[in-house]
């Protein structure tokens, strides 16, 4: 049983209990709901009347259970009727649009313009008080809520590829609606359902309280609250029971629908739990005391760094060195841990991840050595954006959509320098010009959405280099761009490197061709480990690890008749092979490879490979 | 049905155009935005035509029109001699058995809530490809054909990796036994090593099933590897079309040349690429430049280019280019790759 299904047990059981009690009311050994006992009115709880007696001396417990019958039937019944009608209207309107939308969704929305209580009053006045008119009134009242929710969800889903795939397959539109779209709009529908049941119970109580709902002496929770209110001073407990029943039932339904929604979602990701219950990553870190670095120390030296989520190791013993002015490419497929390695250097790892071992010695401007892996949040904030900064893949998501780009660049500068007014403005314009944004004096006032994809990427690079960082980490900065724009951005990176000779760069990418264009050295990662490292030209000329060799061969460049594909896929972190992690997909693998993980070998100065068979790899 | 006539083109697009008019404000005048203009294209059985271009060039809109998912504003689209716009809805649904699509995003193209077996079976059931009792066996056969274990049928999409999902999407497209497949950037979202798996799969299928294929991509290397004929698009128009070896070997249009120069290579040149990198960005289709759409970024543009849209003139056998100054040029980098 999955975790989300287990979570259904508690609210499911309570709801089942409530429903069973209410349904079995005629069979339960209850006192007569209408049996009056005037001499004992307002009597407290006793052996005969567990919850006491009301203003006519009737048994409160049996009235509560029978009252639940009416209240629940009206609330759940109208919620379900409204759900069916509202969903049908929303689906039709959202899928077909045009005229159909007008007669379904827009028509339903007219109801929303009327005050809800007034509408209910109107229906009840016309049809007379009672259970069925109330169900009808509430159904009319809640239909547009469902329609709107389903309509919005349908519009989102109808544009998705799997719906288009159904259309291109020649499936009948009605079949697409029922089979493909309906299951995918179910989650918001369930949330809506829980809200409606709760709200319908409240309105039912309200109308009954006003004398327009269930007709006395038939009990309902609303009626009970109404009559108890009159005797509040004499018997306050009488008010407590129906209120408790109402609140408890509503809460149970909300919880049930919530849990049902996550249980129905096959992709359900069980969250990391409440924020305050998560392990405090900061607590594990001690403020590192900076020490003087050697004069010829590299800019960044990562040694045996591991990153893990709970007990699952995502990055294992990664080592990487960046010298001043050097560009190191970090290459690997998705899930190789390349992005995590980059994020760890800026202290931006997601909450649930932690650096569990190794060191990352960084040499600051003042020549101090600090360990980025052990620095506390305050220490890393002082470096981030100033000495170490980051360029992300998706500029549209990384820039704040409601701030002008000039403001965002200025923000980055102000975080570390006391620059104000005209000097700041001049520096911002100068930066934007530096990264090749045309007409920077005007463009400082542009919002991110007013720029094209390439321009946005330039703006983000401007933010990243605003304080002349000494280490720039670029995470797939050109992956989302078109070829001609990608070439422009790569050219910009090359130019930035020429202009700031001391700046080191880690360029995270999956594209080997981009590596060949921009990097000096390359580190190839696979399944969380570094498998090969060395100068780009040498590694591409003669790879010493089968994975690198296969990656290069799988690039469709040159006239190969057939591409070399690597069979299988990257192993999941839960099921890492015990020996070499690449062995299951490797053409060179022998028994030795599956038995023990290979150690780092040095085929040539400055080159590292993690393979037993490096000598035979071509 | 002209099943036996294999020489006639299967898919014929004539002067296709698609306008998405936009209106600014409630009372503003509708503004023409042509996503595709004057595209004529034929695809024969067993042929793979590659469409290359950057985002916004209209290649996906063209693919959707060729699938009959979108109707052209101008021109006509016919499949096996039948005009798609003249078909009624039920007829179109029936014909769609023979045309299928593979999408870019392997995470979005499969319904997350249904087992993949059920999704592959949809096509089989809708078009009664096999009797109901054999659906299960046919799904298993399709899964094997794309290199997945038959046990995969019971699982749901989130249990598979990107490459596997793309195979599932291909299996679903093959379920109706189509003659024509539109593949819209099918490998762009995949890792390099997985890309090769899917490219090889598509290549095998095209050969084994004699499929006509429209392969849409912005990756020149993949297109060059897979396609026999290439169509290069810019701002909704074809700027160059011809045999793959000609278009990539000695591109005749300056945009094709720029695209080739901009594509990163495992064997980069000596760094003199700087001059060949295009300046500026794609103009807005709502406000295209007069005359040649490429002239604003073209390194060899002159006054005459602004006057009229150049015609698509032949420069060789089945090789056309839309440029008044165009002509085959063998780029330096292309030679290096061959060397």
From TrEMBL, chain A:
Domain ABC transporter: 300-552
Keywords recorded for this protein, A-Z: ATP-binding, Cell membrane, Membrane, Nucleotide-binding, Transmembrane, Transmembrane helix, Transport
Pfam families per UniProt: ABC_tran, BPD_transp_1, oligo_HPY
Topology relative to the membrane: Peripheral membrane protein; Multi-pass membrane protein
GO CC field: plasma membrane
Limits of the ABC transmembrane type-1 domain: 68-257
Keyword Transport: yes
GO BP annotations, alphabetical order: peptide transport; transmembrane transport
Transmembrane portions of the chain: 72-96, 117-142, 189-215, 236-256
Annotated signal peptide: none
GO MF term set: ATP binding; ATP hydrolysis activity
Family (UniProt): Belongs to the binding-protein-dependent transport system permease family.
Protein name per UniProt: Peptide/opine/nickel uptake family ABC transporter, permease/ATP-binding protein
Organism: Salipiger bermudensis (strain DSM 26914 / JCM 13377 / KCTC 12554 / HTCC2601)
UniProtKB/TrEMBL annotation, chain B:
Compartment(s) of residence: Cell inner membrane
GO BP annotation list: peptide transport; transmembrane transport
Alphabetized GO MF terms: ATP binding; ATP hydrolysis activity
Residues spanning the signal sequence: none
Domain (ABC transporter): residue spans on this chain: 11-260
Key words of the record: ATP-binding, Nucleotide-binding, Transport
A single Gene Ontology CC term: plasma membrane
Positions of region (Disordered): 270-290
Gene3D superfamilies membership: P-loop containing nucleotide triphosphate hydrolases
Protein's membrane topology: Peripheral membrane protein
PROSITE patterns: ABC_TRANSPORTER_1, ABC_TRANSPORTER_2
Entry-linked Pfam families: ABC_tran, oligo_HPY
SMART domains to which the protein is assigned, alphabetical: AAA (SM00382)
Keyword tRNA processing set for record: no
Family indicated by similarity: Belongs to the ABC transporter superfamily.
Protein name: ABC transporter, ATP-binding protein
